TrEMBL record:
Residues covered by the Enoyl reductase (ER) domain: 11-304
Signal peptide from the UniProt entry: none
PANTHER family found in the cross-reference section: QUINONE OXIDOREDUCTASE
Protein name per its UniProtKB record: NADP-dependent oxidoreductase
Amino acid sequence: MPEAIAFAEYGPPEVLEAVTRPRPEPGPGQVLVAVRAAGVNPLDWKLRGGAMAAVMPLALPHVPGLELAGTVDALGEGVEGLTVGEEVFGKARGAYAAYALAEADQLVRRPEDLDPVPAAGVAVAAEAAYRALDELGLTEGETLLVHGAAGAVGSMAAQFARARGARVLGTASAPAQDRVRELGAEAVVYGEGVAERLRSAAPEGVDAVLDTSGADVLGLSVALAGGTGRVLSLVDPVAAEQHGVRFSAGTPDEDRTAAALEQVLVLHRAGTLALPVPVTLPLAEAAEAHRWGERGGSGGKLLLLVG
């Protein structure tokens, strides 16, 4: 098992390689986690390929990975509420590794009855979904339309919105309709005729729209919401600007990880948490995981098994 996977130059998946590195030491407010599994996210391969180099330059070599599940191995100065040996999950930088550093407030304890493998792939999607609903100001009794409701972010948004007492309409492919219904949403097949199907489901329109699909739906979304004020995209900044709607990039001062992970635990305790099916590969096959992700159609949440 490699100690970490890194890339020393931008490029295709083949630039990912096993590396040996010293065990990191946690600084003030940090936690060293012995990684059990790490999530694979679109940002990972966008960073590796250089698509984000202009806005998110990296110090190379760089170890990818934004989320994990594992065991607390060491605590930095000032960390309270966690102890060595506890099982945790959440956000961390450099998670494609045997050990990774995380800010203490980006982790939560993992309940024994929550499988660590799917838990490793929760944090990024949960944070994005929670942030989006906050920015949309969604409240009880309102109707939210989620484009791409069967995806990782869309499915978390649907569950969080239902927990707020909102009605949720969720667009997804025909094979994913049952998945959307399992989330407590009303499923609508996307594609040709989706505008008519949505207007039939919500003849008075919707209160807010969240696009997690990037499928050229923002014009329709503005029409259904009666304006641009409560339409938000998490995936398409260019189209968002064209249609005059908000795009949320998740800057550090906007981060909602702590609140999002607490909401995940609330849903888990209630027995209603639905997580994507994990698709796993060993850490050594990180390049293959990136190939799968870039091709699409993996059928679930990509995860790398580490420890």
